[in-house]
Amino acid sequence: MKNLKIFIILVACNYAAQSFAQAKSEVPVIVEQPQKSVVKNLLYVAPNDIYDKVDKYPEYAGGHSAMEAFFKKNLKKGSKIGRVIAVFVIERDGSVTNVDIVRSFSDSAKSEALRVIKLMPKWKPGFNDGKIVRTRCAIPISFQKLAKESVN
């Protein structure tokens, strides 16, 4: 019972303090209603968004066969045979950035793949909803295929 009386007194004091503070306030508070947007349903593409799925994917200048020729020309022959998977971003201007090797059979193959991907010329960028966007791409690099062809 004693706790109930204390609780009632605290609630009454709190209520009185709030009403006193409101009555003493001389500065009027203006609350603005949120304005409705003039432009509706516009797709805003942030400059740093990276898309995994797009309407038109980036293309290597000259196509897939030109990309294979680029790798044949620039990859150094190694004694090990295997495959490396590289992931990178094609920027709006077609440049290759954010290169990462997600799977590799050796450290030397990983470093060689990184070196060659950074040498790549600019690509044709990807498009989504008619706008040029940054696009994430993944490519496999087969050291087996390149090593066999370079021996001949």
TrEMBL record:
InterPro entries per UniProt:
TonB-dependent_transducer, TonB_C
Report the SUPFAM superfamilies cross-referenced here.
Answer: TolA/TonB C-terminal domain (SSF74653)
Signal peptide as annotated in the record: 1-23
Q: Which UniProt keywords apply?
A: Signal
Q: Which residues form the TonB C-terminal domain?
A: 80-143
User: What PANTHER family does this protein's entry cite?
Assistant: PROTEIN TONB (PTHR33446:SF2), PROTEIN TONB-RELATED (PTHR33446)
Record-given protein name = Energy transducer TonB
Q: What is the lineage of its organism?
A: Bacteria, Pseudomonadati, Bacteroidota, Sphingobacteriia, Sphingobacteriales
